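Re-run with default settings, no changes from the original entry. Doing this only to confirm the output is reproducible before filing.
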Amino acid sequence: MSSPHDFDFLVGEWQVANRRRTDFLDPESDWVEFRGTSWCRPLFDGAANVDEIDMPYLGAKGLTLRLFDVEREEWSLNWSSSRSGKLFPPVLGRFDGDRGEFYGDDTHDGKDVRVRFIWAGVSPTSAHWEQAFSLDGGETWVTNWTMDFSRPPAS
């Protein structure tokens, strides 16, 4: 059962190892790897949070606003890039244990895509996120971006 505290693990600073495909829709495209740094801040006593990730390799920053819908017991994850300054359509879903699955609809390169975010391997010191797109309504998926989060060394 999902709760307003599902994302408490994410609060604070993280080092992020990114892997992303050069073509988000081509399962045979190459992977590019780069580092980033993320900071997450809780809001609404944990029922919301906002994070910013700095990705110098891309020359961009990303922002995610997460909100817990108390009635539906469901999260909405809302992403924006510093390149556009616009919110992408949200993905909605929930956690079951330490795994969260979130789905939504968007467009990429002029094509309608089903979007899936997965959070897994969640612990106080690490977490894994991945994004996948589907062109066939969720029958098949192309995982096109992964992030492995780790806490920075204590100074």
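Residues 8-150 form a domain with the Lipocalin fold (CATH 2.40.128.20). The longest strand covers residues 31-43.
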